[in-house]
Amino acid sequence: MSFLIISRFISLINPVMTEMPSCPNCKKPYNQGDKVCQHCGYAFPPSAEILALGTILQGRYEIQELSHEGGTSRVYLAKDKRLYDRRCIVKQVKEPISSDTDMERFDQAILGMAELSFPNVAMILDHFVEGEYYFLVVDYIAGKTLSEVFRESHGKLEEEEIIRWAISMCDILSSIHKQDVTHGDISPQTIMLTDDGFIKFIDFATLDELRCAATGETVSRGRFGYTPPEQWDGKRELRSDIFALSATIYYLLTGFLPLSKEYLASQGPQRADFNPDFPPIRQKNERVSPELEAVLQKALQLDANSRYSSATEFAQDLKNLIKKTPILSVDCERLEFANIMPGRAGASSFTVRNDGASKLVGKLSSDKPWMEISPATLDLEAGEQEVSVTVDTSSLAPGFSDIANINIATNGGKKSIGVSLSVSQTAIGRALAWMSSRRWLVFLIVGIIIVASAGIIVQNTILKETTPATATVFFEDDFSHSGSGWEMEVDNWGESAYTNGEYLLLVSEADYNIVARTSDKIGPLGDFAIEVDARFASGPNDTWYGIGFRQQDKDNSYDFLINSGESADKASYAIFKQFSGTWSQLKDWTDSSYINKGTATNHLKVICKGEQIEVYANGHKLARVTDFSFSKGAIVFEAAKDQGVKAYIYFDNLKIYVPH
Predict the structure, then answer these.
(1) Which terminus of the chain is more solvent-facing, meaning fewer CB atoms within 10 Å of its CB: N or C?
(2) Helix (H, G, I), strand (E, B) or coil at 456
(3) 28 CB-near residues (< 8 Å, 6+ apart)
(4) In terms of domains, do 295 and 184 share one?
(5) What is the pLDDT of residue 32?
(6) Of 92, 118, 139, which one is at a domain's C-terminal end?
(7) pLDDT tens per residue, range 539-571
(8) Is the confidence at residue 323, as pLDDT, over 80?
(9) How far apart are CA 327 and CA 380, in angstroms?
(10) Domain CATH for 335
(11) Strand 601-609 and strand 612-617: pairing?
(12) For the chain, first and last CA: distance in Å?
């Protein structure tokens, strides 16, 4: 093994450090407001004109077409040249950034939005400043907005179909609201029906929030007709989303919004527009059932306390309206099989649920020969059924990659789950060298890789194992014997070594990354729990250490880090995600009295179950976040430091097991 210099987004790790933006052409820094790079002469694209077809931003995002333009932004369809021309959406805020204060506001707004990573919500992939203007990159979603669906149907959508969409919307909101987060801008324009039949939210008031950040305004106000009175008063709450969702249902069934004639005539909003009072829906469409009318009347109360108390409660009443029929639900949108070794199999699963009363029957099929689904038929009276998905790489070449669909056709609806497969280039493990345009971070990865389908540790070591069929724990290591397979190396940048029954990560130099080679057998870990004792023995106060998990490659991973230095009033922790090379915080740096300060040992734990990630310190839950970016991957240990003396981090009593 050799230690390698690599870089990473340290400004997220150390929030007090700021940097100037860099020119996408020569990579040298420039001042906010510059129209031309003073180093290479590159002219930053102006916002006064629509970006021309073929314009490349940040050296990677090639503009394909202008999708639409609003009062505060332009939205472009683009492709990412660094990721095999993957399609994405580039949003440009028209309000120019005129000062560092504006820049700080935008950064804070974006970092807050980047934490909002939920299933069925479009993900923020990147953000940057080019020229004087701010750009945001988000997922491209193939499909149509509900506004487009309504328009193309000429306002003749079926009640039951809309109720099923509404139930899906409530399920998404329930996941969001559990994190005490509101959407703030629900409408037919911000909800998509994907080509695969899924409901997906595409905007958390994103561009309006960014405009507010630039102008110094407070909370985003939403849009007329869908926004309840308390939100106009700046008092947005969880039940504000329930009102907006209900107004969306009302519109899809009637094409009506309670807007004043003056507002519709472009004379500006009137008092009534801030109190959208919906008449009983059967006055606008007598074909709507009385039962649905009663549900919507409750959800559309102007007094927030008179509405449904939660999206879950709202969804239950909607389900009761169609409970005489089967209702197909699934618990995920996609499965990822990343870096499967040539000749090896990969396994994953998802859950099918019948939310109706009568029997759900149907078939599951795949359009690729390398994928097997079991069972292939459904016969489900009620409740849930797990579906296993296996990929076979025995006939596939190293480096092979492909995408596929699992199609589910039932008497309770249709769903499609995306599947991605990538086969590693080689079966031989190697050191990972990562590069980024950000500040340096010291980072150490030690060689442990898990094969989830087998339920055992796979590495060239003498390990303590138990059989998953008879015990929950399938790997333990107390580091008492140097033959257990962990690498022992030293050079100018750091050291990894066994010492006195512990495993040491020694960081010698600041702003460098240290990588220890992995095992020569690689496999991913999906649902798991890991516990380890971590001890900061000595070093600068700005020293971070912890666990990386579900690591895909050099640009994709999750990280749970703590800082237990003596100088702060309390120790702190954070949860990070790197997606396609872009760093975001799933949980910002947060002080916690549960983390021991100084040189005391901290018992760290991470539990991953589906899209739910929980982190613990010393037996206390610190946070739970939701993210669906990575379904499985490798586990690593991490250590990093800022300037100052060497940092000594010790790990001990490692345990990995199947979570309950």
Answers:
(1) C
(2) strand
(3) 22, 37, 39, 40
(4) yes
(5) 52
(6) 139
(7) 888 888 999 888 887 778 899 999 887 665 678
(8) no
(9) 11
(10) 2.60.40.10
(11) antiparallel
(12) 37
pLDDT digits (tens, 9 = 90+) for 261-310: 887 777 777 888 888 889 999 999 988 999 999 999 999 999 999 999 99
Count: domains in the chain: 4
**How far apart (Å, rounded) are the C-alpha atoms in residues 169 and 191?**
9
The DSSP element (H or E) to which 109 belongs, if any, is helix 100-114
Q: What DSSP string describes 546-601?
A: EEEEEEEETTEEEEEEEE--SSSSSEEEEEEEEETTEEEEEEEEEEETTSPPTTSE
- In the DSSP assignment, the letter for residue 306 is G
- Asked if residue 163 and residue 113 are part of one domain, the reply reads no
SS3 166: helix
Write down which residue in 295, 321, 347 finishes a domain: 321
Residues 317 and 211 in one domain: yes
Confidence of residue 523 (pLDDT cuts 50, 70, 90): low
Within 13 Å and on the Cβ side, how many CA atoms surround 173?
30
Residue with tokens 């805020």: 93
Rounded CA separation 389/348 (Å):
5
Mean pLDDT across the chain: 77
Q: How confident is the model at residue 603 (pLDDT cuts 50, 70, 90)?
A: very high
Residue 491 near residue 431, CB atoms below 8 Å = no
> Which residue is listed with tokens 């495993």?
503
Residue 68 β-bridge partners: 75
132: tokens are: 């004087």
Residue 6, domain member (yes or no): no
Strand pairing report for 377-380 and 334-340: unpaired
Q: Coil, helix or strand for 318? A: helix
pLDDT tens figures, 407-427: 898 888 888 888 888 887 654
Does one domain contain both 198 and 75? no
In a domain, 10, yes or no: no
